[in-house]
Structure formats: C-alpha cells, structure tokens
C-alpha cells in the first residue's frame, strides 16, 4: 500500500509540475527615468525570477525593446570593465523618449551565463592578459551560455509580435527569431568606450560578432 501511494504521489507531482514562463505580478515602478510598470515573471524551467519594465501603452508590432542581461558589477556598481550599466540606462531613457517600450531584465545571465563568481574569476584572468573569451575557456566555462527563450516567452505574454531591438549583438536577434519574435529593426546601443573597457569591447567585436563600428574612432585608447 505504501509503495502504491508513493507512486501515485510521484505521478501527481509530475502532473502539477509547471514549465515555461508565468506572469506573477504587475506593479507600478517610478524611476529617475520615468514611471514604468514592473511585470514580474517566474521562469519555471530554470527557477529564475524575471522582470519586464514596460513604459507607456505598447502594441503588438515594432515595439522598442531591450533584452538586458543581468550584470551586477556594471548595473549596480558602475564598473567600467564593461558598458552594461550605461547600456541599461540608455535603454530606459530611449523607451521613455519613444513614449513606449520594454526593457526585459534577464536574471541568470550574469557573465554571459557563467554566474557572478565565474565572471569575477574571468575578470581576474583578464587582468593578467587574457581576453574575455580566453578567460572563460581557461576556466572550463562556456564563452556564452545565455538562453533567450524566457525573453521571447515574456514578449509573447505581453502580446508583442515584432520588436525594434536595442542591441549590438546579432545572437540576440537570431535567438528571438528562432522563438517566433520578428525583428523589425536592430537599433544600435553604442556607448563611448573608455580606457578600462576598450580591450573588452574590441574582443566582443572581433570574437563575438558584436556590431561596434564606433570603436574605429578611438584607436588612441590602449
């Protein structure tokens, strides 16, 4: 009898186990950029909590959109190792200037998906002379482990069919296309480089195919 109950319990748990992206909450979020709605989601496949910042009344087509990978060092601490914090701020300003738009903040994407400690270890190796790709590989970690399926799921839930994607990364564009989100336009999000991130940005252009034409004008930086 005990074994039978145990089997039934397992089958019941399997039936009730959730998958995919679930909208959990919609709350007003006043920011220094403007009044957003913070729409919170649970990614049941990965266990991550996600959020979409929505400004104004969005439609289904040609929605100005940013998929922003979580970056604690850049977004919160103002790190100049990358341009992530400035890109996030620029994207938020852009959707406010547009009058409507979405910034999907993707948690679990820290360090292109290797996590905070993995990223810090890679940064330590970069300080010794490796580039960002070489550092990940030296640690036995993937160069880019990010998945954008959850971002597409959030956009589908918001009723979005096509976006004007604020990104310099063609892989984000390709990933959304694979998940059924059309790209009406890829909008560059170019941040002036500094001495601390120019090598990192050049590696992103040369080895990760990022479209960063503005780097040609700063050859004087080391």
Automatic annotation (TrEMBL):
- Where along the chain is Zn(2+) bound? 71, 82, 84
The family database entries (SUPFAM superfamilies) matched by this protein are listed as: RibA-like (SSF142695)
- What chemistry does it catalyse, as a reaction equation? GTP + 4 H2O = 2,5-diamino-6-hydroxy-4-(5-phosphoribosylamino)-pyrimidine + formate + 2 phosphate + 3 H(+)
A GO BP entry: riboflavin biosynthetic process
Q: Where are the transmembrane segments?
A: none
Q: In which pathway does it act?
A: Cofactor biosynthesis; riboflavin biosynthesis; 5-amino-6-(D-ribitylamino)uracil from GTP: step 1/4
Classification via CDD domains: GTP_cyclohydro2
Q: Recorded GO terms, molecular function? A: GTP binding; GTP cyclohydrolase II activity; zinc ion binding
Classification via InterPro entries: GTP_cyclohydro_II, RibA, RibA-like_sf
Does the UniProt entry include the keyword Repeat?
A: no
| Similarity-based family | Belongs to the GTP cyclohydrolase II family. In the N-terminal section; belongs to the DHBP synthase family.
- What is the protein name given in its UniProt record? GTP cyclohydrolase-2
Q: Which organism is it from?
A: Streptomyces sp. NBC_00180
